[in-house]
Specification:
The complex is a heterodimer. By secondary structure, chain A is an all-beta fold. Chain A contains no helices and eleven strands. The chains are: A mainly beta, B mainly beta. The interface between A and B is medium-sized, with 30 and 25 residues.
């Protein structure tokens, strides 16, 4: 079955360490996105990529970095510069970066930094 | 960026219809209205989207006001599995492509 896989489901890190969250899709979608969700809050956009080898900052990109070297992969690195990294991270994709393309989400990675 | 406003919570009895409202008074002419829902500890799931005309699919119906400043997601017969947080978002075709998700509406279905 086609879909988006985020791994791991739970991730624990010590403060000051960089950590990379994996996102893989086999839907052949051009666009991919990373969101962050805090308890009781909506989703905030971190980075998005319209096409391979391209990505743009979203609303809260500070302290994060991404790469898009392959169409199916869009890893997110949470750096030590991110002041409040503990959150639920969601990856999504869409066929095109267009307003008529629904987003398909993975089931998220819950990151805890202590 | 155009934003949406939704009630924080709603309740419905099982097997009854549910109408979830969304206000988007600053919507632009090219914005599509999308609805998603999210179960606890899962990623959001796409429900339906539309531009001007009402839309139906196997999950729900979307009723869009004539002036497009509001819309309503209609679940025809609520089931316990429909209990979730429902998000109404606008996706625009220009510039940064608004992908803002607010806090949504938490739907409780009463058996």
């Amino acid at each position: 079955d086609g879909g988006i896989t985020q791994s791991p489901k739970y991730l624990f890190r010590k403060e000051g360490q960089n950590v990379t969250l994996s996102c893989e899709q086999n839907l052949n979608h051009d666009a991919m996105y990373w969101y962050r969700q805090d308890p009781g809050q909506g989703l905030r956009l971190i980075y998005y990529s319209q096409i391979v080898n391209d990505f743009q900052k979203g609303d809260i990109a500070e302290g994060y970095s991404v790469s898009r070297e392959k169409k199916e992969s869009f890893p997110l690195t949470v750096t030590s510069a991110q002041k409040n990294p503990t959150a639920f991270y969601l990856c999504a994709s869409s066929i095109l970066f267009g307003h008529n393309s629904p987003l398909h989400f993975g089931n998220g990675t819950r990151l805890t930094v202590t | 960026d155009a934003k949406t406003t939704q009630p924080n919570s709603m309740e419905s009895n099982e097997e009854e219809p549910v109408h979830l409202p969304c206000n988007h008074s600053t919507i632009s002419g090219t914005d599509y209205i999308h609805w998603y829902r999210q179960l606890p500890s899962q990623g959001p799931e796409y429900v339906i989207h539309g531009l001007t005309s009402n839309v139906n699919n196997r999950m729900a119906s979307l009723a869009i006001a004539e002036d497009r400043k509001s819309s309503t997601l209609i679940l025809h017969r609520a089931t316990l599995r429909d209990a979730a947080v429902y998000y109404c978002i606008l996706r625009d075709a220009t510039g940064a492509n608004n992908l803002f998700f607010g806090t949504g509406t938490r739907l409780t279905v009463i058996p």
